[in-house]
Amino acid sequence: MKETVNVNIGSQAFTMDEDAYGALRTYLDDIASRLPEGDTETLDDIERGMAEIFRERISSPMLVVTLAMVREAMSRMGRPSDFGESRAASAEEQSREPQRAKLYRSRTNRSIAGVCGGIAAFIGADATVLRLLTLVMILLGGLSIWVYVILWIVIPEEPVKRPSGGNNRL
Fold first, then answer.
1. Which residue has the higher pLDDT, 168 or 147?
2. Do the beta carbons of residue 14 and residue 6 sit within 8 Å?
3. What predicted TM-score, i.e. pTM, was given to this entire model?
């Protein structure tokens, strides 16, 4: 004996066995992950197409949609990869690409102008150590104060980070 689930697909009510529901949910979630964010219209069209295929096979509302029917409908609708590349996969590829570091004056890690904090972030060093090294070099004459002022003018300030306000949906 199998459990059944009542679902709405394309604004039509169906009774599905649990296996069929799981397969259909996985299929539709995979397609949704490949569509542009916020594109609900295409997914609604796909659901309506699935509902039409199920209605062709089911003569009575009392019949249950089986896993075989879901697999047939999925083969008629196409593979999820036909709808594009998964956003999760493309995000992983983008995160794997090496990010080229940019030199900025720090907005948060600064004593005077953020030059040492920015350089420290750029080279991956401790800003306090770099500040002390710069101070010692200025005091011992190995570095002119003018070099610091020129770097202050030439190195752009770090851009303001704004929180993203995108819509999050499943």
1. 147
2. yes
3. 0.49
